[in-house]
Amino acid sequence: WDAENVHLTDVLVSVVKETGTGADLYDAGEIDYAILSDAFVGQYEGAEDFNTVPRATLGYIMFNDTKEPTNNAALRRAVSQAFDKELYAESVIQDGSTPANGFVPTGFDVDEEGVDYREAAGDILTYNVEQAQKDWEQAKEELGIDELSLELLVSDVDLSGRTAEYLQAQIQENLPGLTITIRSVPLQNRLEIQRSLDYDFYYGTWAPDYQDALNFVEQLTTDGGINFAKYSNEEVDKLVDQTRHELANDPVARREALMQAEKIFVEEDAITSALYQVSTSYLLSPDVKNFEIMPFGRTINLRTTYRAAE
Questions:
Q1: Could you report the per-residue pLDDT of 38-73, keeping only the tens digit for each?
Q2: CATH class for domain 56-279?
Q3: Where exactly are the structural domains of the chain?
């Protein structure tokens, strides 16, 4: 099928464990494509063969809704507005990833008019220290406390550790009286702890199964796939159900229902807060054409790729 548009007969893959090794192989002309991370992005940024593309993966925090004090919405709003996402993306991730202010990523769901879902929905619950401190005062009053300690659960990998330390520093600085401790465990253990609800809030990442804003929004329904918070809101469930049934053939009303549901669980209930949207930065030989980085799922698509020099 489509044989006239398929040009490659062979693809040689070099498996490398370190970003620096891949960059060196690329610079030596031994490979045509190399993924970059951290400091290597700054080293190559601006070069003709440097590229950055967004992917439909979010890094986020989620709160345990089954126990005090993290079942308090004012506390969750305070924490979610107390860290600078722009600074986080620039100083911690350093790979071209961008701040996320909503639970549906940019460039993922575009309607027939070419309008992106995130653009239409706008930013939700952004970095705002003044409002975070007001919500923190409200939370202290509602909980009857002056000080509080929360534990942040993360996986024991490099980025998760750096993320935890950044959140700890920002939240403690901007919300005096709130102490953040860090619990770092292997990923499988983290998932087990989430399922057992033995945590206050956690940091994780998630990528979709199919290209529809619904796939992100439905995660925070009562039976949502990554709803480790055990969060349940009847209005969110109702709106999502409508998008699957009576609004399924009305794209305008369907999108509006999804945006309403997202606003409820991100802004009003603040059960989760996205930190950043993943981007892939890479080097690609200028003579390689039709090379595609996929927004989710498999990383690259070489079906119609060809080398111009040939």
A1: 778 988 988 999 999 889 999 999 999 999 999 999
A2: alpha beta
A3: 3-53+280-307, 56-279
